[in-house]
Amino acid sequence: MRYDRKRNSIWIGSPDGLVEFTLDDKQFHHINALNEFENLKDFWQWAGIDIDPDGRVWMGTTKGILIYDPANNSVSLPFPNDSVQQKKVSEDNLFLYCDKDGMIWMGTFSSKGIYQVLPFSPAVKRYVADPGLANGLTSNNVANFVYAGQGTIWMGSPDGIKIFDPKTGFFNLL
Q1: Are 111 and 101 within 8 A, CB to CB?
Q2: In this predicted model, which residue has the larger pLDDT, 7 or 114?
Q3: Interatomic CA distance for residues 117 and 13, integer angstroms
Q4: pTM tops 0.85
Q5: Cα dist. 57→13, 20, 23, 73 in Å?
Q6: Share of the chain above pLDDT 90, in %
Q7: How far is CA 167 from the centre of its chain?
Q8: Which residues on neighbouring strands pair with residue 156, listed in sequence order?
Q9: Residue 121's pLDDT band (boundaries 50, 70, 90)?
Q10: Starting from the edge strand earliest in sequence, which strands make up the sheet with 27-30, in order?
Q11: Residue 69 reports pLDDT greater than 90
């Protein structure tokens, strides 16, 4: 668990998912933005949880490192377009530390050593087809884009209409 000075709350990684305990009203609040991950088979949180200088909550889970942003109630991955790197850095991750300069330090319980991650936001993201990636883009042929509300985009593809969530980087078939 981690104390969040800015929000006067405590973030807890629990068997029930991410929970925020607000000290002002002494209430527990389940974070529903993580439901998509929590409902995955064999999902559970490791011990790793910390808050970066931007107020985002970083968590180690059996499905990889997840980043929850309370400011916009969104969830992202450190390497959303690189499943190999996401798995490599996230696998066996047990400890997370976010330093004041924005560096994220990750330690494992296996003999993989430690990782240093420098988060950044590129000006452009490129999504390419990766049929082996669950919830990934299955074809590079995309036609028509329509804003579908709640930050999602619908797009036509050879296998049907895809719903894209830029927060998670996931594509789901309608």
Answers
A1: no
A2: 7
A3: 21
A4: no
A5: 10, 11, 17, 11
A6: 25
A7: 8
A8: 143, 161
A9: low
A10: 2-4, 9-14, 17-22, 27-30
A11: yes
Beta partners for 103?
none
Question: Residue 128's closest CA among 84, 90, 171?
Answer: 171
Collapsing DSSP to helix, strand or coil, 61 comes out as strand
Mean pLDDT of the region 43-62: 83
Handedness of CA 67, 153, 37, 26 (dihedral sign): positive
Summary mean pLDDT of the chain? 84
Long-range contacts of 85-91 (CB under 8 A, 24+ apart): 89/65, 89/115, 89/117, 90/60, 90/61, 90/63, 90/64, 90/65, 91/64
Q: Return d(Cα 74, Cα 34) in angstroms, integer.
A: 8
DSSP state of 32: G
- The b/e string for 32-65 (b: 16+ C-beta within 10 A; e otherwise) is ebbeebbeeeeeebbebbbbbeeebbbbbbbbbb
- Residue 12: beta bridge partners? 19
